[in-house]
Inverse folding.
């Protein structure tokens, strides 16, 4: 399904839209090496960021939540990227999967771990804290709730703040996946299709 809204060139933006644009392209997402481009060659925003320009007040708030969960969280880089990929698999979001598999590889995720996450499964993780976080992320995407064991296990490893940040991350990337379906033309998952397990770069 093609995108429903056109990308906007920087010169076409009004001042409120330009403020959101600058926050996305000039904030922490733009610092350091880029695992995936934020814009195309003409400066138009990629993926879910383009839709944020439709409502600058809401778009600014959404992008600020995203920056916080990615760059101001207690979660480690590996846990953050694995949790994002859990959400990507649940929503069958190609953009999220390809973008964050690239980031995940730069954080040390292996092909075996990426394949398990792509299939919606818990990777073979030896680190107890990582396992608790990804079990919680899988439960949140599958059922929308944590049972007492999952809750207290996650809190024991990450504290209440860490678990709050994990639930915020899961909710934020579910929101982006929804926006990608509505505005960017990503198709919903085919329930009859087998999970993809190929390895390699995105």
């Amino acid at each position: 399904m093609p995108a429903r809204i056109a990308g906007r060139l920087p010169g076409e933006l009004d001042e409120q839209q330009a403020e959101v644009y600058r926050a996305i392209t000039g904030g922490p997402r733009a610092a350091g090496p880029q695992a995936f481009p934020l814009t195309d060659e003409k400066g138009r925003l990629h993926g879910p960021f383009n839709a944020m320009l439709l409502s600058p007040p809401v778009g600014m708030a959404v992008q600020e939540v995203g920056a916080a969960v990615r760059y101001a969280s207690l979660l480690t880089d590996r846990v953050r990227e694995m949790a994002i990929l859990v959400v990507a698999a649940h929503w069958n979001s190609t953009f999220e999967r390809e973008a964050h598999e690239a980031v995940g590889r730069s954080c040390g995720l292996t092909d075996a771990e990426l394949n398990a996450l792509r299939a919606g499964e818990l990777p073979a993780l030896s680190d107890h804290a990582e396992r608790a976080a990804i079990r919680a992320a899988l439960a949140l995407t599958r059922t929308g709730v944590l049972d007492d064991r999952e809750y207290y296990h996650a809190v024991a490893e990450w504290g209440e703040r860490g678990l709050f940040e994990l639930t915020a991350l899961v909710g934020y990337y579910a929101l982006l996946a929804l926006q990608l379906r509505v505005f960017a033309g990503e198709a919903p998952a085919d329930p009859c299709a087998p999970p993809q397990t190929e390895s390699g770069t995105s």
About this structure: The helical segments are 15-26, 47-51, 56-71, 77-91, 94-106, 111-118, 128-143, 148-183. Residues 148-183 form the longest helix (36 residues). The CA atoms of residues 74 and 161 lie 8 Å apart. The two ends are 21 Å apart (CA to CA).
